[in-house]
Amino acid sequence: MKNIPLLLMGCGGVGRQLLQHIVSCRSLHAQQGVHLRVIGVCDSKSLVFASDVITRELNDQTLYEVCRVKSNGSSLSALGDLGECIVYGNSESKRKVMDIAALLGKATGLAFVDCSASSETIGVLNQVVDMGCCVVLANKKPLTSIMEDYDKLVSYPRHIRHESTVGAGLPVIASLNRLLSSGDPVHRIIGSLSGTLGYVMSEVEDGKPLSEVVKAAKNLGFTEPDPRDDLSGMDVARKALILARLLGRRINLDNIKIESLYPDEMGPDAMSVEEFLASGIVSLDNDVQERVKKALLNGNVLRYVCVIEGSRCEVGIQELPKDSPLGRLRGSDNVLEIYSRCYNKQPLVIQGAGAGNDTTAAGVLADILDIQDLFP
């Protein structure tokens, strides 16, 4: 049986779902000759880890208890007596994490799995890659930090996996890597990489006001608590930056042209969420509806997409043919069109659910299993 020690950073929706996937897949992984040995879990305030990280692990009952405590909104420090486990507070957590990385990195190997949404993990990840550890990411921020941080993370390309940073469980990164490693240059990528904005644009296409669509999306749980986090386009921009850097573009977030669906005067610093939904967004309805009508007159539809082509990398609303893969998009799916030498006239199209804790966690789990050959 091959044992893969892993340490999970981040116990939000994706992190908890990953732990549940690991437990539920025990028999399947045993048939494959693999055992995922969770030696530690940390949130922003605490770390819980096995008393002997070389021989022990957090058992499945403990993992379920971690999920229960975190789903209640508590810190890991709220965990009670867990027997063979030790809980550290915030002040000592980082030091202990580094001690574990130094102990296991070169010896048995260790996978650092970042399911947080924090930029505070960047410093830790940059250090552990030099200790022989592998890194699996759902968190986009380490890959969209400054180029120096990015270069450090990808300096051992076999040791990093980050499929879930772009399209949840969709094989976007893997497909691009296969094209690039086979010498098939990718010259254009255009995609709808936000389930929320995909839903919004396909609904306004049917004549519904933007304000009503956004409110409905929020009620359905499609948006963040503040819908402006989605409407700003920043999440799509981070995904576009990851793809652009994968293609060799040495750019940062501020090099990307980003179209927000609301003006600065309706931003979080100027207006509450309640004010934005009650009166702010309503004033945007006419402008969006005019753009929809103009596109329809041209036989096109509007989609919120990222475009990467040559030196161009931008995110915003584009007019696209109705009969294109992106033009046919309905609902909250992600769609990516990739154009290369081999896929020139007819692009390689990747489509499917691009969001959700379950789908994202499944993508992370697949990434962990993909690096199993690096472990003794």
From TrEMBL:
Biological processes per GO annotation: methionine biosynthetic process; threonine biosynthetic process
Lineage: Eukaryota, Viridiplantae, Streptophyta, Embryophyta, Tracheophyta
Domain Homoserine dehydrogenase catalytic positions: 171-369
Origin superkingdom: Eukaryota
Keywords assigned by UniProt, alphabetized: Amino-acid biosynthesis, Methionine biosynthesis, NADP, Oxidoreductase, Threonine biosynthesis
InterPro entries found in the cross-reference section: Bifunc_Aspkin/hSer_DH, HDH_cat, HDH_CS, HDH_short, NAD(P)-bd_dom_sf
Catalyses which reaction(s): L-homoserine + NADP(+) = L-aspartate 4-semialdehyde + NADPH + H(+)
Record: residues binding L-homoserine: E224
Annotated family: Belongs to the homoserine dehydrogenase family.
One Gene Ontology term of the molecular function aspect: homoserine dehydrogenase activity
Ligand binding (NADPH): K140
Organism of this sequence: Salix brachista
Annotated binding of NADP(+), by residue: G10, C11, G12, G13, V14, G15
Protein name, as recorded: Homoserine dehydrogenase
Residues forming the catalytic site: K239 (proton donor)
This enzyme's EC code(s): 1.1.1.3
Cofactor entry: a metal cation
Pathway: Amino-acid biosynthesis; L-methionine biosynthesis via de novo pathway; L-homoserine from L-aspartate: step 3/3; Amino-acid biosynthesis; L-threonine biosynthesis; L-threonine from L-aspartate: step 3/5
